[in-house]
Amino acid sequence: MRNINDRLQEMTEKINSENIIESSGLGNEINFRVFDYDPEDEYIVRDYLYNYLKVRNKNIIIFDIYDIIIEILKDKGFLEKTFEYEKKKGTKYVNSVIQKTLAISSNSDLIVKYIREHLEENKIVIITGMGKCYGIVRGHTILNNLQSVITNNPVIMLYPGIYDGQSFKLFKILDNDNYYRAFQLVSRK
After folding, report:
1. d(Cα 161, Cα 174) in Å, to the nearest integer?
2. In a designed cystine with 64, which of 43, 100, 119, 129 is the match (CB 3.0 to 4.6 A)?
3. Half-sphere exposure (CA, 13 Å, Cβ side) for 10?
4. CA-CA distance, 53 to 164, in Å (whole number)?
């Protein structure tokens, strides 16, 4: 298995190539890719993304799903209430309330709306923060919901776990639903 630094370097090379914008080799499929990594490498990936890639490549736009959720809850004046709900009724309950508030997987999905409103043409979209919002929204749900919104931009989801081209496994232990429309960006081998 290749180390994370070699894989991040290959990701950078692919992001910097014209092929990613042109969606070459995907046979007219949507231009969605997943960069999966071991959860213990989260801080290496995060540091690389924000302190190297974002600084050196102005052709990317980063959407941290967890940060988007927090911003939406703050804007709705609901963030502090979620803390109270969690103390009184537990995490599972508060996650359910947040899902309903965000209207996840509906036509009014607020995460999708946020991304649509902040999307910039000709930018590579990087989705991150999936591990931080575990229990609220899943990787396959985000990608499914974005298929109708992001049609021209390449999308790369950074995923702390395993994506085998068919399904996700968050943190390498939690099975997730199948998703087969994205391609693995960089091989682990």
Report:
1. 9
2. 129
3. 14
4. 25
Which letter, b or e, does each residue of 45-80 get, where b requires 16 or more Cβ atoms within 10 Å of its Cβ?
Answer: bbebbeeebeeeeeebbbbbbbebbbebbeeeeeee
112 vs 37: CA distance, rounded Å = 24
3-state secondary structure of 108: coil
Determine the 3-state secondary structure of 153 from DSSP.
coil
The residue behind tokens 């790369």 is: 156
Distance in angstroms (rounded) separating the CA atoms of residues 31 and 120: 16
Which two tokens mark 15?
Answer: 């992001």
The C-alpha atoms of residue 127 and residue 158 are separated, in whole angstroms, by: 6
Query: Which two tokens mark 147?
Result: 């298929």
- For residue range 16-70, list pLDDT tens digits in order: 987 787 664 445 567 899 999 999 999 999 999 999 999 999 999 999 999 999 9
Place of tokens 């309950």: 93
3-state helix vs strand vs coil in the chain, percent to 5: 45, 20, 35
